[in-house]
Design a protein that fits this description.
- The complex is a heterotrimer of chains A (477), B (308) and C (107).
- Chain A is an all-alpha fold and 477 residues long.
- In chain A, 76% of the residues lie in helices and 2% in strands.
- In chain A, strands 1-2 form a two-stranded antiparallel sheet.
- The two termini of chain A are 15 Å apart.
- With 308 residues, chain B is mostly helical.
- Chain B folds into 2 domains: 1-85; 123-169 and 176-308, no CATH class.
- Chain B has 13 helices and no strands.
- Chain B is globular.
- Chain B starts with a helix and ends with a helix.
- With 107 residues, chain C is mainly alpha-helical.
- Chain C has one domain: Helix Hairpins (Orthogonal Bundle), CATH 1.10.287.
- The termini of chain C are far apart.
- The chains are: A mainly alpha (477), B mainly alpha (308), C mainly alpha (107).
- Chains in contact: A-B, A-C, B-C.
């Protein structure tokens, strides 16, 4: 637990140093925040090691009060993994923001450290009201980061903020109904006492609706493309890679721990169907988008469909493979998407166009960024041996073993085809060397290489596949 | 139906009617003014429901800060033309609400009305009160039992102010009170000392009765906003260490307490019992300072406050 | 102070649900961002009213719920203030863009 708390505190300390420190230039701020992320990453790895070697989930009652009165923090293999993942993404996005040519605004550093803190607090919390505050923190930090790209993004930021506030109110109302019935906010306690009643159903419906709106899960995803496409590249990477995963984590907590198992079994197929539709509808929208970053943003909607589907099937079948598949998807998608957004930002900046057609001949003009895009896209499609393939393999195995589950496999196949279509659409344009769109400026290679880094890590995930699966194999938390 | 229910009924009808008219008022300005009125009625309802802490907070926010916030916004917006009365919208809202409320009543309340209102639970708060360091239960929950929530709440304020700082990228003077209304100035002179006094009292009182850091902070902020608007308070330049320091003070002390209790004491935010009361008062004082400054900046901060 | 009659609590719960629904409806049909912000705040008041009505089941009222509402109020005011400033800034930038484009057209 010590290491987990350290991983939570370091980014906050970095942010406070940047805020209050004297003569804090953006360059110094970047050093402080990057150091914070790096330390936090190391601490998260130590926490991961301690929780896997001890083999048991650790809990901490804050303030030393008894269960039910105190807010409880919990360190499970999953939350340790997510801590490490968040720190890694922040480190990668921070390195990109520091060394690429396109600045992300001076306050990027403070805000990204704030966001990191809020996410870490979310992964560790096991208290529904505390989770509400972390959701609000993440929402505020994310909106402020969207606003970093200047006045043209304010409208998207304002819409995002309004929806995010409404969503957390709906979530909070659900939490209140749960508390009114069970007199506790503690996830672990709720899991032992919750029963299938009308009030519990209402509460879970409200919680689910609020979180799906927050997490841009289909059909409540309409705000996402404008917000994610409008932000600076490093920010888009953070938003798509980690921010939307926060609500997903709480949704997973609500349905696997808080909800009575029978109710979860009943609702599971609906969630999985929503995921399947998200996969196809998001992919279709991505395929038709004329802008590079909007394509990548819609692909987030589609990819979240896989996670939603894994969650739905986990709820209805309650088998640990789905749990593994869900979180492998989250991690693989996060890394791949970070790479895609950074590569898209680099290509967009170098080629001086936001349009997809501007990518003609990109394999010649911006080869490294284009390579990063293709490599990361390969993981989204699920080409072996990438992280995306690993996740899809774990998801497909139990589905294919039972003939009555084959409709789900069909959905996954359709989703794969659609994602292959929008990735290849970009790649084909990039290979069109007959009518090259000449770059505005000489490509600045450092940014391109940094965009490639997360994509390489996601392909490297396959090497760690066995460990990752073993880590998550505990099933629940 | 008993006579006892009558005041509640009146309040409820008032609440709904004002909320309704705030939402569908014909001009935007009316909507804003009615929303401020709504805040006052909400404060009354909280008082009626035995929540004086919240009534105070709501009055300071709903009637005070939100009022100033909305009126300042109204000044920047063009006067919108009055909207035609659209009966479909009202009818739609009415249907929506009637269906939802009756659905709620039929499915949740009617099956077991006694179950909803039953008082079948002993709160663990009462038993833990003696060890909490304060005697007011709400303060004990906020600063001891659920101190982590309050810590994150201070972060919410900090995030919001950092977010606001992003909104002044263009080098341009925002409209400022070129002419200060004389009446406002003299009222400010009278009211602000009173607000400061009441704020300080609420902070001190918080450990034993209704009141506490947030209510005090909100009141102080209301005073500072008045001073700032009338120009009696100089701009709170972000570049001043004092400003940034007080913005972060509450968070910093909380964080230090957490880290120190963790490394030297019994555990994360586990106050040593003998000093719990003092620690809580210290945290509350700095939290009040942070809350007051941040709320002032959130409501009245301009470019010259936040980006210089 | 005795605990409130059960009927009153139910009355306040119903009104709370009505407020939340009113706010939700406003959020769905209104276009003006400031009115939508007001709608969200009305939703918030409904949620807080639910909490306080539930707190009143006990005598004295449940301090945990009251503390949660205090926290919720702080979150709500900070978010509302930030949202309002953001809406105004968005509006300003839109107007600046519009006047900028007409000026270039004039030239």
């Amino acid at each position: 637990m010590n290491d987990a708390l350290l991983s939570l505190v370091t980014p906050l300390v970095a942010a406070l140093i940047v805020l209050t420190g004297p003569a804090m230039t953006p360059r110094r701020a970047s050093v402080v925040v990057l150091l914070g992320s790096a330390l936090s990453f190391v601490a998260a790895l130590l926490a991961l090691q301690s929780v896997t070697t001890s083999g048991a989930t650790q809990t901490l009652n804050l303030g030393g009060w008894e269960d039910g009165l105190a807010i409880r923090l919990r360190l499970s293999p999953l939350s340790a993994l997510l801590l490490a993942f968040t720190a890694l993404i922040h480190l990668l996005a921070g390195l990109y923001a520091r060394f690429s040519r396109f600045t992300s605004g001076d306050d990027f550093w403070v805000l990204s450290a704030f966001l990191h803190t809020a996410l870490a607090a979310l992964w560790l919390s096991a208290d529904l009201f505390n989770l509400y505050i972390t959701l609000e923190l993440i929402g505020l930090a994310a909106v402020a980061m969207v606003a970093l790209s200047g006045p043209k993004a304010y409208q998207a930021a304002a819409d995002y903020l309004l929806l995010s506030l409404a969503a957390s109110m709906i979530y909070l109302l659900g939490v209140v109904f749960l508390y009114s019935e069970y007199h506790t906010l503690d996830v672990i306690q709720l899991g032992t006492v919750s029963a299938d009643s009308a009030r519990t159903r209402l509460a879970l419906a409200l919680i689910t609706a609020g979180l799906m709106l927050k997490g841009a899960l289909w059909p409540l995803h309409l705000w996402l493309p404008a917000a994610h496409a409008g932000a600076p590249a490093a920010v888009s990477a953070l938003l798509s890679a980690v921010v939307v995963k926060g609500p997903l984590f709480i949704l997973w907590l609500a349905w696997t721990e808080v909800a009575p198992a029978d109710l979860a079994r009943e609702v599971g197929p609906m969630v999985a169907t929503a995921g399947m539709i998200a996969l196809v509808a998001g992919g279709w929208a991505a395929m038709r988008s004329p802008y590079i970053k909007v394509l990548v943003a819609y692909s987030t909607v589609a990819q979240l469909g896989y996670a939603l589907m894994a969650l739905g099937l986990l709820m209805s079948w309650q088998i640990p493979q789905m749990h593994i598949a869900l979180w492998l998807f989250v991690i693989a998608h996060g890394l791949a998407k970070a790479s895609l957004f950074m590569a898209a930002g680099e290509m967009q900046g170098t080629l001086g166009t936001r349009r997809l057609t501007g990518l003609r001949g990109a394999t010649q003009t911006v080869p490294i960024a284009m390579f990063a895009f293709a490599v990361a896209g390969g993981s989204l499609i699920g080409l072996p041996p990438s992280g995306g393939f690993l996740a899809k393999w774990v998801l497909l195995e139990p589905i294919l073993s039972q003939p009555q589950n084959w409709p789900w496999a069909f959905g996954i196949l359709l989703g794969t085809l659609v994602s292959a279509a929008y990735i290849f659409r970009v790649v084909v344009l990039a290979f069109d060397r007959a009518t090259i769109n000449p770059p505005d400026t000489r490509p600045y290679l450092m940014g391109h290489w940094l965009a490639l880094l997360p994509a390489l890590i996601v392909w490297g995930m396959a090497l760690l596949g066995e460990q990752l699966i073993g880590l998550l194999a505990g099933g629940g938390v | 139906m008993t006579v006892e229910l009558l005041p509640d009924l009146v309040l409820c009808v008032l609440l709904l009617v004002v909320a309704w008219s705030a939402l569908f008022a014909s001009t935007r300005r009316d909507a804003m003014a009615l929303f401020v009125a709504f805040g006052m009625i909400v404060a009354l309802v909280w008082a009626r429901l035995g929540a004086p802490d919240l009534a105070l907070a709501e009055a300071a926010i709903g009637a005070g800060l939100t009022g100033v916030l909305l009126l300042r916004a109204a000044r920047k917006l063009p006067v919108s033309s009055a909207r035609r009365f659209d009966y479909r919208r009202h009818l739609g809202a009415l249907t929506f609400i009637v269906v939802a409320v009756s659905g709620f009543a039929v499915s949740i309340i009617l099956p077991s009305p006694a179950d909803i209102t039953a008082n079948n639970f002993d709160s663990p708060v009462a038993a833990a009160m003696p060890d909490s360091g304060v005697s007011h239960p709400v303060t004990a929950v906020l600063l001891n039992f659920r101190a982590w929530d309050t810590f994150l709440e201070l972060l919410v304020l900090l995030f919001a102010i950092t977010g606001l700082r992003q909104l002044f990228p263009i080098e341009k003077e925002s409209l400022e009170p070129a002419r200060t209304w004389q009446l406002l100035v003299s009222w400010t002179r009278t009211l602000v000392p009173l607000l400061l006094l009441v704020g300080a009292y609420l902070l001190w009182r918080g450990s034993s009765g209704p009141g506490g850091a947030f209510q005090a902070g909100a009141l102080l902020a209301a005073g500072c906003v008045m001073l700032r608007i009338t120009g009696m308070l100089p701009p709170l330049h972000w570049s001043l260490f004092a400003v940034r320091g007080s913005v972060c003070a509450g968070t910093l002390l909380f964080l230090c307490t957490a880290v120190l209790t963790h490394s030297l004491g019994a555990g994360w935010l586990d106050y040593p019992e003998a000093h719990a009361g003092t620690l809580i008062l210290m945290i509350e004082t700095l939290a009040t300072l942070s809350i007051a400054i941040i709320l002032t900046l959130l409501v009245a901060g301009e470019r010259k406050d936040l980006c210089s | 102070m005795s605990s409130l009659a059960a009927n009153s609590i139910i009355l306040y719960l119903l009104v709370a649900v009505a407020l939340v629904m009113l706010g939700l409806y406003g959020l769905l049909v209104l276009k003006d961002p400031i009115r939508r912000l007001i709608a969200i705040n009305i939703m918030g008041s409904g949620t807080f009213l639910t909490m306080i009505a539930f707190a009143r089941r006990q005598d004295p009222p449940d301090p945990i719920l009251h503390a949660l509402v205090v926290t919720g109020l702080v979150v709500a005011i900070s978010a509302t203030a930030f949202a309002l400033r953001l809406i105004l800034a968005a509006r300003e930038s839109r107007e600046a863009a519009a006047s900028g484009s007409t000026e270039t057209e004039d030239e």
